[in-house]
Amino acid sequence: MRLKLAAILTAASMAVAAFGSDQPLKLQAVPFTAVRITDSFWSSRQETNRIASIPVSLDNLEKAGNLSNFRLAARHVTNGFTGPVFMDSDVYKAIEAASFSLATHPDAQLEARLDSIISLVAGAQQPDGYLDTYFLVKEPGRRWTNLRDCHELYCAGHLIEAAVAHFQATGKRNFLDVAVKLAGHVNSVFGPEPKRLGYPGHPEIELALVKLSRVTGDPRYFELAKFFVENRGRHYFATEHRTPPEKYDGSYWLDDVPIFDHEKIKGHAVRAAYLMSGATDVAGQTGDERLLAMLDRVWRNTTEKNLYITGGIGPSAHNEGFTVDYDLPNLTAYQETCATVALAQWASRMSLLYGDAQYADVVERGLYNGMLAGVSHDGQKFFYVNPLESAGHHHRQEWFGCACCPPNAARTIAAVGGYAYAVGPNSLWVNLYIQGRVKTPLDGQQVCLDVESDYPWDGKVTLKPTFDPPGRHELRLRVPGWCDGAALSINGQSVAAPRVERGYFVVSRDWKKGDVVKLNLPMPVRRVSANPNVVADRGLVALQRGPLVYCIEQCDQTAAVASLSLPPDASVKVEKSKWFGGTVVVHASGRQSAQLDWKDALYQSETPPARAEITAVPYFVWDNRQAGAMKVWLPVAPVAQKK
Amino acid sequence: MRLKLAAILTAASMAVAAFGSDQPLKLQAVPFTAVRITDSFWSSRQETNRIASIPVSLDNLEKAGNLSNFRLAARHVTNGFTGPVFMDSDVYKAIEAASFSLATHPDAQLEARLDSIISLVAGAQQPDGYLDTYFLVKEPGRRWTNLRDCHELYCAGHLIEAAVAHFQATGKRNFLDVAVKLAGHVNSVFGPEPKRLGYPGHPEIELALVKLSRVTGDPRYFELAKFFVENRGRHYFATEHRTPPEKYDGSYWLDDVPIFDHEKIKGHAVRAAYLMSGATDVAGQTGDERLLAMLDRVWRNTTEKNLYITGGIGPSAHNEGFTVDYDLPNLTAYQETCATVALAQWASRMSLLYGDAQYADVVERGLYNGMLAGVSHDGQKFFYVNPLESAGHHHRQEWFGCACCPPNAARTIAAVGGYAYAVGPNSLWVNLYIQGRVKTPLDGQQVCLDVESDYPWDGKVTLKPTFDPPGRHELRLRVPGWCDGAALSINGQSVAAPRVERGYFVVSRDWKKGDVVKLNLPMPVRRVSANPNVVADRGLVALQRGPLVYCIEQCDQTAAVASLSLPPDASVKVEKSKWFGGTVVVHASGRQSAQLDWKDALYQSETPPARAEITAVPYFVWDNRQAGAMKVWLPVAPVAQKK
Predict the structure, then answer these.
(1) Which of A110, A216, A565, B625 is the most exposed place for a label (fewest CB within 10 A)?
(2) Which residues on A lie below 8 Å from B547 (Cβ)?
(3) CB neighbours (10 Å) of residue B108?
(4) Under a CB-based contact definition with an 8 Å cutoff, are residues B13 and B26 in contact?
């Protein structure tokens, strides 16, 4: 499969024009199947995922009726549909997560369970390939009549993604055949005339079709993805809903302007990031300069003005999405788990396209913070909404009526190795530092890289590459954006001024067997400020260590969270704890604001704050112990407290 | 005059019922004419007032056309009126200021100038007593047709106040006769049926008529004041402007509800405070419990939720008045000089009514801060609007098209001694500590009190009372609300636990010649916080020393005002400077926020603030040197600075 994909990319790259100063590099991701993870951080989370989150998800899909919808559809029953319109997609994402897990942790019981669910899904597919239980059971005869709201193409996209994953993981075609049949049906309906104009109300199928095209080598799926991307913004939804275009605000669906004309991120966050992911796939292959320019503009707007420090997007519950630039409230942050996943997917695609470390920085920020927070430490409870501050009443739930997030986090954790490496011309790129081994073809040769590290708790990384045959190759090591003073040594010799390109150390040499590269990424606790335009964070500071954003939870404090502040000169120390796999805890010399009894007073003498130790834990850890208040952004100065 | 007034009060007090727990005490103010000021603080300001502000005001009244309006009216010319509808009132306030000044600083030239202006005014008075040049010159025949907007009764009130002051200062009746004739005319028009219902759009005449009643002993003027106060809120303005009452929002004029029913301060700030002053005069004399209860409610609402730390009121330029509770913005603070004066007048009346130190606290806060800021150090420029923060573009002006503020500050400075003392049954009350001497009758005897102090720069006050004949009397010394640890000694003997009543030290003894009372009011620099409900002051602190609120001006700083912060543990020292009459300057160890170059970054490492000395000067001093930024409320924590 990799070879087929490489062939497609190579052919396409010939036609690509340079965009701006960033010549697209078009790296290829090393698939998660080629990555073995042996660290204490991700491997334990993947194990929890396998033994808890994935089975729990499958159980919940049975309980919530997602699977029964397929049974009804298979029996041509036209009533009894349960749940929202996009119920099928949760099943597909769970299959995808389970498939990813199977690929690295063979599990006969899980594989059998998957096959049984896949039969169920396949049994509901119509002879013409159509498959969407909502329309089959609840609205028969109304297929493709409400693309804007009814998620048919979205569900199809998740089916395709899951089928590709299942095929990659197991080599079995039972699900891929369903996907191919469905994609063929979709392709028979939508496309240039005489087929229909149309595109998904909720993007997703675009990136899925690109995956299917790569796996099958069939360019028609890519062409269909390109069609969905490039026609978006032609006010199809206004037509579909019989609204005069001038009265129609399509921004929620990113259908307000032609796809090429977006200036900023907008609308529903997950829709936006999935669309941009698909558009990046398409632009990477076509080299369309207008699309590339749009992606660059929207990327910058997203990451420079609309990104939570925890790597998530979408501040508002109102539209599950964006409002105005720099609107990043903390207590009411929506930051849906799915949106963090979606942004990481987009960022990863941008990273492959340009090979600039800023993109993998966003991948890392999202994976280690916003995404991981989406699942409890025991893997059995989930966040849909991820605020950066809580008064103590926000907790993970066992499941949701709209259950998109749990399997989305599960599939991301299971496939995290897929975000770590990429290959370019004669070069192996390391984007995430995860202990383990990667083996991948490289320009017709083989490279094996062993990585030793306690990342993200420690920034020392030992890399032992074996090129077969040995020779002159490049190792490109991402220097994280959060890191000052990264140092490199080769075979014990410090490299005085390592070559740096687009944020990567470039180690180009005639490699010999036994070569050892050591990277040191210092991880002091950093006090981070937000751009002053972010009103919600004015006068506040966040603690970050390495890639991890920290928060304070009430259960670790000696004073009320609301009363704590962290002056600029606060001393800070770290402690390696025993819980949650050796979590590094931060202790800081904070202040506790005095509680003033204001009664009827308008002015009174300030009461100096008392000293109070503040204990901070990684954001993803929160809400795993006693319920209580939580804050990522801490006041630098004492906050007036009312008695 | 004092005896007449005392007689009126004594007769009235018999009928007064107790209000709440505060039995009205109904003290009598010791008139400014009985107070000699010999300190360095007020005496120099009174001298500047006499040689600069008052002549400058009179000159400007000539230039701006205020005086020519009188000349036109005297000649029955009906065109050529200059300026806004209330032009006459500025003349009257200037006469009042000049009269107060004459009383303590005889000045033949000024007295002659006044007489000439008074002749001009008198010459314009109509045979029936009517006098308002706007209607005489510009709208003849339309007298009393627009009480709401046209300030006729307001101007009449200022004429009366000025005439009373001129009579008190000079003993001459030339202006008082004009006032009596005008008051008689007003009284012939307004009152119970068959006279007309009506009251002023801009209150002022109520308190003026009470003064006139006291000076002349004629109770009709008091009755008319009572009529204006007690009928207010009967929607007269809706009738006058032919608006159905249900469609009429009279809150700007405090005409929305019957006067007895106000729950909070509202509308135009100067209107509100003058009305409350008049209502306090009336309630003090009638003992009307409903009116007293209203005054108590509105007072508490004003001082607990709507008072600037500098003693002013009225946050909004939109209505020159109030918005919602706790709305006290700094950069856009309106805080008109006249409103500070008006509130001090009301507070002084409440102080006399109840003898509780909280009221004189507000008098002091306003006089030493908001009011004094209204005039430049050279006495030649004036603030109308008094923000608590400036980017550097707000400066005193030579005069205004609406020139109410300059003469209002001038008359207040000239008569400041009148706020300092009061007498009650067998007791002399000291409200303000100003070096000098007061001589006043007390229960048919005489008391002379010599005061030595460098107040407000120093809190040590030596008081040498001489009662003639000696005997048992009370000296009541206000312990300022800002003061912790006030100490008292008598003839060198420290008083261990002085008796305190309603915020006053009560020194009751058989006084002997040569008795010396020493009061020590410690004046450390205080860090003051605002109630957390004041959004504008959250995270900010103000410096106060004694009664003076401090600010920082750019010209005293080594770093940009906007970059400075004052951490809770900042050390503070004071320095007695040589300028502005020995101003005490505060130096504090502040912080200078780093200027971060944000470019396109959304998050970046905090840069610790540098140390920076902050120099603060009294608020009233600001904008007398180099133009530049100013702030009263300083951030406790570093503020993000953009490069």
Answers:
(1) B625
(2) none
(3) 8
(4) yes
Go through chain B and tell me how many residues it has: 643
φ, ψ (nearest 5 deg) of residue A404: -70, -35
Antiparallel, parallel or unpaired: β A460-468 and A421-424: unpaired
Q: How far apart are CA B513 and CA B469, in angstroms?
A: 10
A423: confidence class by pLDDT, cuts 50, 70, 90: very high
Q: Would you state the pLDDT for residue B23?
A: 64
Q: Is the pLDDT of residue A13 over 80?
A: no
**DSSP letters for A112-156:** HHHHHHHHHHHHH--TTS---HIIIIISTT-TTS-TTTS-HHHHH
**DSSP-assigned beta bridge partners for residue A612:** A590
Specify whether the CB–CB gap between B99 and B170 falls below 8 A: yes
Distances (CA, A) of B21 to B18, B389, B425: 7, 39, 19
Among B529, B538, B633, most A C-beta atoms within 10 A, so best to mutate, is: B529
Question: Tokens 């990113």 — which residue?
Answer: A254
Distance CA B568, CA B271 (A): 40
CB B215 within 8 A of CB B1: yes
Distance CA A133, CA A77 (A): 10
Q: Which residue, chain included where needed, has tokens 């609402």?
A: B301
The encoded tokens of residue B168 equal 């008190």
State CA A535 to chain mean position distance: 26
| Of A33, A41, A34, residue with least CA distance to A453 | A41
Residue partners of B474: CB distance under 8 A and separation at least 6 = B426, B427, B428, B506, B507, B508
- The contacts of residue A10 (CB under 8 Å, 6+ apart) are none
> Residues 6 or more apart from A165 whose CB is under 8 A from it?
A95, A96, A99, A100, A411, A415
Residue in the structure block whose two tokens are 């954001």: A619
Does domain A422-520 sit in CATH 2.60.40?
yes
What gap in Å lies between CA A2 and CA A21, rounded to an integer? 29
Give the amino acid at A363: V
pLDDT band at A277 (very low <50, low <70, confident <90, very high): very high
The residue behind tokens 């006043």 is B440
**Token pair for residue A39?**
């660290």
Rounded to whole angstroms, how far apart are CA atoms A567 and B567? 8
Best of B593, B602, B633 to disrupt the A interface (most A CBs within 10 Å) is B602
* pLDDT tens-digit series, residues A586-596: 999 999 998 77
Q: How far is CA B243 from CA A271, B149, B236, B239, B250, in A?
A: 55, 15, 10, 6, 11
DSSP three-state, residue A352 = helix
- For residue range A47-59, what is the model confidence (pLDDT) as tens digits? 999 999 999 999 9
CA–CA–CA angle A376, A380, A382 (5° rounding): 55
* Active-site amino acid positions of B: 320, 404
- Angstroms from A539 CA to nearest CA on chain B: 6
- What's the rounded Cα separation, in Å, for the pair A446 and B437? 102
Q: How far apart are CA A397 and CA A404, in angstroms?
A: 13
Residues of A labelled as active-site residues: 320, 404
Asked if pLDDT for residue A317 goes beyond 60, the answer is yes
CB-based contacts of B171, cutoff 8 Å, min separation 6: none
CA gap A367, A412 in Å, rounded: 8
Instruction: Tell me the torsion sign for CA atoms A79, A84, A88, A91.
Output: negative
Cα gap A42→A26, rounded to integer Å: 27
Strands B595-596 and B641-642: parallel
- Residues of A in Cβ contact (< 8 Å) with B309: 603
Residue B610 in this model has a pLDDT that exceeds 60: yes
- Written in H, E and C, the secondary structure of A237-250 is HHHHCCCCHHHCCC
The ipTM assigned to this model is 0.89
Check whether B477 has a pLDDT greater than 50. Answer: yes
Q: What is the average pLDDT value for chain B, to the nearest integer?
A: 93
Q: Where are the domains of chain A?
A: 65-233, 422-520, 526-642
